[in-house]
Amino acid sequence: MTLEMMFVLILLLAMFTALVFEVARPDMVIFSVLVILLLSGILTVEEALKGFSNAGMLTIALLFIVAGVIQKSGLIHQMMEKWLRNSRTSAGAMIRFFVPTSVLSAFLNNTPIVVTLTPIIKKWCEDRGIAPSKFLIPLSYATILGGMITLMGTSTNLVIHGLLLDLGMKGFSLFTLAAVGIPVTFIGLLYLCTIGYKLLPDNQSFSQRWKEEPKEYIAEMKVTQAFGKLGKRVKQAGLRDLKGLYLIEIIRGNERISPVRSTTVIQIGDRLIFTGLMSTIADLQKMKGLELETGTNIDLDDLKDGTTSLVEAVVSDQSFLLSKTIKQSTFRSRYDAGVIAVHRNNERIKSKVGDIVLKPGDTLLLLAGPDFVAQYRRSNDFFVVSALDTPEALKQSTKKGWFSIIMLLVMIGTVTLGWLDMFKAMALTVLVFLVAKIITPQEAKKYIHFHVLLLIASSFGIGAAMRKTGLAEWTADVLLDIGKPFGLLVMLFMIYLLTNLFTELVTNSTAAVMMLPIGIEMAQSLQVDPTGIAVVIAVAASASFVTPIGYQTNLIVYGPGGYTFMDYVRAGLPLSLIVMLTSVFIIYHLWF
């Protein structure tokens, strides 16, 4: 091993460590590694920037816009609501829900699909007294499975396609992966509808817990000069024996008084932290001199006249809010909404609301104005935004909605018939959307997930460094030495397992970009079709079922479903094994 190879290997290990321990956002970690490779001279400027002009990466950017237009139409929302209306049982609803969801995911980016459908399925569950936690992880898994069917089904497939083109190979056709993706999706959905959902917890939804378990929530009230009980003890001030309400902490400057004793004296400026019934808190704010701290100038009384609403929002992995306390993020002025409660892993965070440092997947209960849902539904700061009482449907002309769906079908047809390649077809579709004023350039910009593109483009440079220094060839030789005595089938399982481990620990695109050079070197040494190896890596990189961090859709449903990390392991590990066994055996017989 040369010094350059050792340097790149150390950088990769440091990158993995930073990603696993969430030192910074994944795109910033990988971009930092790319900059180091550039400054060290291992990569030239052209090599470092090659990923930013890669056809696969640019196709993903266009796919975000197309998916955003379809989501904006609201037709999927309406059709799924009508489709589910006649479902009476959980098993029947799963089949009716997840089969079309998987089909949609084969042709649209699965992130907006999950964002759009999560509120629908939650409401359907709540109306029938069914735990949404039985449906939301399967929703994510169904979109992941469906994404394996076509080239455009997931960014991973497009990334590998772009890499193959860069290496002078043919790349994938639109349905190259269908031979594997269709049977894998069928078997995976069969597992989810028969065994998988039984392994998931029976958690109530966030809104149901809001109504039925109010002691899970906290509120903060500030004592002002007008409070008539200043200088009185807690009990004398009438704050000890409140119906459905409990004073758990008093914050006085830098001092925290907890537990609160009956003899504690109330002073001006005290911040009183209560847990209990929000209806009681609403009554308590009528007490002169106590002000509810929601982080905004609206209060609970406004709920009665409809000027405000209770809103549920899930923090995204690219949110401005990450790694800041709610107070530091100036939540009030930025969103004109107040955070009433924060849930993480189905548990209330025992801290002053303003001091909570937010993480991806946290579920916020907000007191917000009537326009909040419409304004921030597509914000990069939140995955899912929905009012707890009357979720606002997306509004757009039905004609424009059907036109956008027809354009998508036409695009698929032109690619299938070979008239245009994927990038040209996507570019033409987006151009038509802009000319027909289905979307504005400003909207198109909002639909693009720039952090995902930065991550993918930077990953291309890291893959180039692995090839250029010989690290990919060296790693391939090590794997060949281990697996060659056991035959090609065992080596395919090794490649799959290593790729799948990377995708669970870091991200699917990074795993694909790192493993493909290794896989191509192995294919050349074994003198076998590299397309088969590429398909193994594509499926393994997408099959992220065991952790909430490996795939974005898993993170989206993390908070709304009230899941823990082990819920993903319990339901996802059997599915991961099923997908691995099915896909590897099919690939082995079709390509080798």
TrEMBL record:
Keyword Manganese: no
Primary location group: membrane
Transmembrane segments: 28-45, 57-77, 97-118, 139-160, 172-200, 401-419, 425-440, 447-466, 486-507, 528-551, 571-591
Domain of life (superkingdom): Bacteria
Record keywords: Membrane, Repeat, Transmembrane, Transmembrane helix, Transport
Membrane-protein topology: Multi-pass membrane protein
InterPro entries xrefs: Cit_transptr-like_dom, DASS-Related_Transporters, Na/sul_symport_CS, RCK_C, RCK_C_sf
Compartments, as annotated in UniProt: Membrane
Domain RCK C-terminal residues, every copy: 203-290, 298-382
Family annotation (Pfam families): CitMHS, TrkA_C
This protein's name: SLC13 family permease
Organism in which the protein naturally occurs: Oceanobacillus locisalsi
